[in-house]
Amino acid sequence: MDYELEIGIFIGAGNETGESIPIETAEQHVFGLCLLNDWSARDIQSWEYQPLGPFLSKNFATTLSPWIVTSEALAPFRVAFERRGGDPQPLPYLDSAANRTHGALDIRLEVLLETQQMRDRGRPPARLSRTSYRHAYWSAAQLVAHHTVNGCGLRPDDLFGSGTLSGPAAEEAGSLLELTEGGKRRLKLPDSESRVFLEDGDAVVFRGWCEREGAVRIGFGEVRGTMLPA
Question: Residue 2 — pLDDT band, cuts 50, 70, 90?
């Protein structure tokens, strides 16, 4: 078992079936964001990934943060959307001047792990990684534009997952699969514990917030989920 650090994107205004949403107006269809844990069974995923792609390995559980933060509240934390130089640039229908200048959001994110031993000993959770939503490979506007380019109709309260959020540095990885290099390297924890993947009793905690000088700090609440025995 594994977690995936993601942002959840809630749709506000939808679109009629058969009508696409251009990237220039896609942000107007986003009501707000939350934190999202896309729980993943890596053993099942390794079996079905070729040639089917992930399906049963990722459709059994999702945990959301208690708060949805509206797009208006997040406006002060917008930053430029940048794709690394060596990567392919977005196709024209996924590119706009507005998306380039302020299509990303600087939402600070961190993942913590609380084992049963930590709870028994009164120890705090151990931080596994810290990153920012600004490093996302696709912006929210791009996801909405691409999802509807074939005329797929969206409805209010539809929920998108951003995909695993991992920054450029190794310590910014958004899953154990990445932190342990595909399960090849054990991750050291306090008090001589270690993990490759999650074990019974492990609690995964996500935290997210926005802050900058001159703006009110905004939090998303805490995402917490605990692995129980089968």
Answer: very high
